[in-house]
UniProtKB/TrEMBL annotation, chains A, B:
GO terms for molecular function: metal ion binding; prenyltransferase activity. This is Polyprenyl synthetase. GO terms for biological process: isoprenoid biosynthetic process. InterPro entries: Isoprenoid_synthase_dom_sf, Polyprenyl_synt, Polyprenyl_synt_CS. Keywords: Magnesium, Metal-binding, Transferase. The keyword Metal-binding applies. The keyword DNA damage does not apply. Belongs to the FPP/GGPP synthase family. Pfam families: polyprenyl_synt. Its cofactor is Mg(2+).
């Protein structure tokens, strides 16, 4: 999409401009390393999109947009340590290259840099953004802890799951939009509406992620087929299946999810229950539901329809990856 | 000291009052655990002292004072992981009890809570405090990284060392005082003066810590004698000794600091060089120098002498522990 490319170029240039030159290099080079590897940088783009929606100045939103990207990378550095992930965006993770200590510390420092990047805003706006930012950080930590808890918790419910993905994925998109809107001077109602748009697109995106793991086209998605089943992850598919399974199927699901194996029998058996309980359809309906809620909030915002088009395109882009 | 006891009671009551009741418990209980174990809680007390110096309201300074304590404990949780420390204030560290992941995450969440505890301040003051707080966080991260670097860096200089302890110890005391002063409405000059008072007391305190490791009375100090020598720590004593040693002594020092052992020969030999180069006297002179700089800044502050008394008593208390 052209507008995404344009925003991506703006963000990339800003990241280049603000490359950390601070010392000690042992602390700052890992920070530059992870930020320079990019990814799609959707969150800073969300800040800029919302800022444009309400006719804000690019200059004013640019450093806060980077702050969101720094924040996101702070969470990635720490999450990668927790998940013992060797790779991120195809490159070795920071703790793999430099050890856990540098991972913890450069993550912390990146978070402080993120906070500092709001300091050009005038006090009222600064405080409004900081409230959103602090709240986001706390909910993200809580979401990550819920996710960790789920690994050993037997009785995860569908509501537990929705809260977890809301905290882990929905809130940061939501806050990115809200901060962009606040910086542009949007009123409280509109800022909350674009927050809720982002939240529900984020939730829908995460459900799509779970869906595609099993029902996506492997080639275009670029991840191992059914990796979540292998890892016994309590995804939306698993939780919906448990809910709608027969007693016998539920026992079979629990049996397979007590073993960590990429045995094809396991994948085949679990997928069979998934199809039998129609969780593929149910997941798609959920995605549609959250997309509709997102659109509902978008509709309520008091700007010309033309201004909303990129948001609809972004949601479509995020939710139709290859399905 | 009576006034310290009084402040300690106020802080303890506030900590009780604001015990985290949030969920998930797996995230918040470790935070309550480390905070409830206390320690002397000097940093929140510094906030309250500076607030009182400029006739601020206790109610207004209390949550920011707790924020400083939360921040301090966030650094302790992460530092303990990095140092693989089994104990903190005589109790098992969080990562020892709950694993490194919970340590990283509850540290992060505690930092976000610290930020949130400033949110009751009006926007101008909020922003002024956040600038101090963000800067402090960044310098502390840098100081911790310098400290880690020193373990493997051969040519650590005296100036490197002073910067490291300034960032690791001086800045947080300094900022605690400054934030207390800002909340009370002190002007910029006075707030900077009390910042600098705290910075130099902090530096002097850290040098005293190095001094007492070798020259303190073991019983009252409560730490292993010469633990820094055993650990090959590049303390002020080591750096001054290297500077003032003969070529032969310097080689001997480097020889011993290439071995990690509690061999008494090592401790005896190193201490002999320390005494020969008179680093004990030099360290005491440095402590005196930084204490004098601190007093110089205190003198400049435009409040009645009576208001300065607790600050002088605090500095004396910190710097004369058992020497």
């Amino acid at each position: 999409m052209q507008f995404l490319d344009d925003y991506q170029r703006i963000v990339a240039e800003a990241i280049d401009k603000y490359t950390f030159k601070d010392k000690p290099a042992e602390l700052y080079e890992p920070m530059n390393y992870i930020i320079s590897h990019g990814g799609k940088r959707l969150r800073p783009i969300m800040v800029l999109m919302a800022n444009d929606m309400f006719d804000g100045e690019l200059e004013k939103a640019l450093k806060p947009a980077l702050a969101i990207e720094f924040f996101h990378n702070f969470t990635l550095i720490h999450d990668d340590i927790m998940d013992e992930a060797p790779l991120r965006r195809g490159k070795p993770t920071i703790h793999t290259l430099h050890g856990v200590n540098v991972g913890i510390l450069s993550g912390d420092a990146l978070l402080f840099k993120a906070y500092k990047f709001f300091e050009d805003l005038e006090p009222n706006l600064f405080k409004a953004c900081m409230r959103v930012f602090n709240h986001t950080g706390l909910l993200l930590s809580e979401g990550q802890q819920y996710d960790i808890n789920f690994e050993t918790k037997g009785d995860v419910t569908f509501n537990d799951y929705i809260r977890m993905i809301t905290y882990k994925t929905g809130i940061l998109s939501a806050s990115s939009f809200e901060i962009g809107a606040l910086i542009a001077g949007a009123n409280f109602t509109d800022a909350k509406a674009i927050f809720n748009f982002g939240k529900h697109v984020g939730i829908a995106f995460q459900i799509m992620d779970d869906y595609l793991d099993v029902f996506g086209q492997q080639e275009s998605f670029g991840k191992m087929h059914a990796g979540d089943i292998v890892e016994n992850k309590k995804t939306v598919l698993y939780l919906l299946a448990k809910e709608h399974a027969t007693e016998e199927e539920r026992k079979e699901l629990e049996f397979w999810y007590s073993k960590k194996t990429d045995n094809l029998d396991k994948i085949y058996s679990v997928e069979k229950i998934f199809r039998r309980t129609k969780v593929d359809e149910k997941a798609l309906l959920l995605i549609q539901k959250h997309n509709e809620i997102a659109q509902h909030y978008l509709n309520k915002i008091n700007v010309p329809d033309e201004k909303k088009k990129p948001f609809i395109e972004l949601a479509n882009y995020l939710l139709r990856r290859d399905s």
